[in-house]
Design brief:
- The protein is an alpha+beta fold.
- It has one domain: CBS-domain (Roll), CATH 3.10.580.
- Helix content is 47%, strand content 18%.
- The strands form two sheets. The chain has a three-stranded mixed beta sheet with strand order 1-2-3. A two-stranded antiparallel ribbon has the order 4-5.
- The longest helix has 25 residues.
- The protein is elongated, with a radius of gyration of 18 Å.
- The relative contact order is 0.19.
């Protein structure tokens, strides 16, 4: 199964934020969309990092001024990037090994979506449930 199948179900919407905005701004966007990560993009909408809610929480434990910090100070710069043509199981493996929860998906250098570990688990579950249903129908028909 390819990443493009997950994107087809989710749609192309990706919540983004500029690195010069504050963590307070980022928390507002996360809460407004009820999501766990933001892709940090430059003026040309190219990903330059990713900000996940757990990054904010961990930093808040030792930084009283976290809310006024710039997103660019807190974001992860070295992020896993995916492609619509990636095999979903390989992407899941990479995410597990790198302890990454969200992967921006780029095609021809353009941000076209985001895949979470939850999206992958749901796609796998749906595949297995379809297989179980098919086997049950076969058994009942025999």
């Amino acid at each position: 199964m390819k990443t493009s199948l997950v994107l087809a179900k989710k749609g192309p919407n990706v919540a983004t934020i500029h690195p010069e905005l504050t963590i307070r701004d980022a928390i507002g966007v996360l809460a407004m969309h009820n999501i766990g990560s933001l892709v940090v993009v430059d003026d040309n909408r190219r990903p330059v990092g990713i900000l996940e809610e757990h990054d904010i929480i961990r930093r808040a434990a030792s930084d009283e001024a976290i809310f006024e910090r710039r997103v660019g100070e807190v974001m992860k710069k070295d992020m896993v990037i995916g492609s619509p043509h990636d095999d979903l199981r390989m992407l899941a493996h990479t995410m597990t090994e790198t302890r990454t929860r969200h992967v921006p998906i780029l095609e021809d250098g353009e941000l076209v979506g985001i895949v979470s570990i939850g999206d992958i688990l749901k796609a796998e579950r749906d595949t297995y449930m379809g297989e179980v249903d098919r086997l049950q129908i076969e058994m009942m028909g025999s």
